[in-house]
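A note from the maintainers: we've had questions about how concatenated examples are separated. There is no special marker in the raw files; a new sequence line simply starts the next protein. For clarity in this README we add a label.
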Amino acid sequence: MSQALKSKNKTTEHMGQKNAPSKGILISFLVFAVAVAILFAPSLNSNVAQGMEGFNANAASSSDTVSQYGTILDTLQYGRSIHILAMLLVGFGFLMAFIRKHGYSSITATFLVVSVAIPMYMLIKSFGGEHFAMSTIDIKTFLFAEFAAASLLISIGAPLGRLRMDQYILMALLFIPAYIFNEWLILESGYFHGFIDTGGSVVIHAFGAYFGLGVVANTFSSFKNDPACENDSTSNQFCLLGSMILWLFWPSFTSAIVSPDRVVLTAINTIFALCGSTLATYIFSTLLRGKVEIEDIANAALAGGVAIGSLCDITSPGYAMLIGIGAGALSTIGYSIIAPKLESLIKGTDTCGINNLHGMPGILGGLTAIFVSGNTTVQLGGIVVTLIVAFVCGRASGFIISMFGKKAVPYSDQDEFMLDH
């Protein structure tokens, strides 16, 4: 081994040791994970105990028609839940691998935050009053936990490349309670009765986007002298792979909790919306830039899936495609024109452009529901309150996260991963 290579390896090793989270933080995370697992014990959690009793009772009476019908529905929803897991881990993971030297970090961060979000959501929702708690051993609760994980993955796209692994875990711990509060406020409290958002355009996508923007607000000065975010042909192809996986499974995301008689309509509407946004992205990217920008086609092509969420089970395919076209155009304009202006406004960098893919199309989806519900006050109120809660909670979380330092080498794996094998 050459002297220069030895020196480089020693420098990288020293950098990794210097940048590694303290043993105290890692042990704290381990203790927290063990505590969460213990709190799911039936002897400590009456919700889990009731779920186990109900599960065993249903299993004992499996010949009952009602029980069989429930089992069939649960099995169908289980299939969609696995599709959503594919979106969360493979889709989001590779979509965020577009940063040239940050692929290990992007995919590992995806693993970590999903591993925090799902059990934490289900634990919090297993406690509380009858209007808050959800049955723990229930496929619908699991699906809602996956929705929370999806919103979190959207959120980490804003600071992607500028946090250490332990800071992503911390961000997840701060995000889930805020997400649950907003979900309860908008969908369960009764204050916004009649709010339409079946597929989560507002509660999932817009919330995640503006929480993430809150986290990165006023961080320009912290990273102004650091390396820039770079991509290349290989990282962009991984990003496109992630985008296609998300496109493929998006109908399962929007139809996950709709009534069985509306699953087919929801799936068709979602596909039509995605077709509309994909076509609009190509057209507007070419018109605005002269050639297709990979960032546009990998991201804005998905905007139709975001925007159709609110009306996915109640509109028709033609309107769905129009919504998709509008969302694709809006998202492409966001990436090409609006993004620099937004970053100047919030004094922070949105690495993945989550405002363009999830923020603005999510708001668009929420606004389209006004034409169906006719309840402008409730629909607008739900959107505005979601944006305020998301951004304020994101700003508070960003302040807490910043207290734990910063990543030694932004947009790089070298300070946290072993790369010499």
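[label: protein 2]
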Amino acid sequence: GRSLAPLCTVCSCGFVNRTLAVVFMISLAFAIVVGNVITLTVMVQTRQSRSPQGYLKVSLAMADMMVGVLVVPFSVYTEIFLMVMSTPPLWYQGSSISGTDNPWQPCMLIGPVFAGCTFVSISTIFLMTLERSIAILWPLHKDTVVTHKRTLFFVLISWVVSFLLALAPLIFSSNFILEYNECSRMCNYTPLLHGKQLRSDAYILLLFPAFDFTLLGATFAVNVLSFTTIRRYSRKRKLLSEGSLNEGGGGGGKGCQQRPSFSDIKAAKTIGILTFAFTASFSPIAVFVLGNVVGYTWCNFSFFAFWMLTGNSCCNVIIYSVRDQRFRKGVMLLLHREQSHPNS
């Protein structure tokens, strides 16, 4: 077998293009690491981290942090190496199948980490949606249904399942290798060719978009249910304020007692924005994977698809900083502490 070698065009591999790509990667890595360090610090030093929702936020930030610490810096190192050195590194592209004495392929670590962190992100967003929907639909039973132990258990399950799925092409098939792709500038699964044809088990890569879109579909369905309930409660509150209902009749009293809090409603809206952002960032790479299985390479598009998904790792921090007032307050308290230490 031989690997499906990526196309390397002047547009994707020229010196100027590589330089711009490296500057972009370094900026993105800095934004991901700094943003998620702030998120984790705020979560650890405030009471938010000791709640089920806090556990889920920490899980999401940890997955994003791993992308910024491992995945992006490796691409930066490889691109700088290719620009400075006249020859590529020994492990570079296809060398892992050319003999038995080749060095260890770093993409065997970096590739599954990126795929696994992506699956952790969408599964965590799904769990956050479920947690907020329970708070909105059954606010009186939220504390008994969503407990700390159950949340930690589901967080652990999401990490284990996500990384097992990330390794599925290597576990269930011997016709895949992980190598650095000059087009996407990342470690990608590369199917081996039998003659000029892809082997039948190459379709196992479709597990990746199938898993993500299944969870995204379920997340959208739960969000629709939650927002429908929020809209119903908003209408009832408006009628109560106008005097059309009274607390003793029409179910107004019961509705008021079971009405979700303002923080639950705002958190549900924030998670809805997170879901939309992840869907927008994942859709291009799903199209690319489908085309790759069929036999297309799409060199320039692959860079756009993979790095748009990578950029989502710093979007979560931006969304929280804009939407979550408690998070902004935690950041201000953190900065105030850092400024007060030198003065004291």
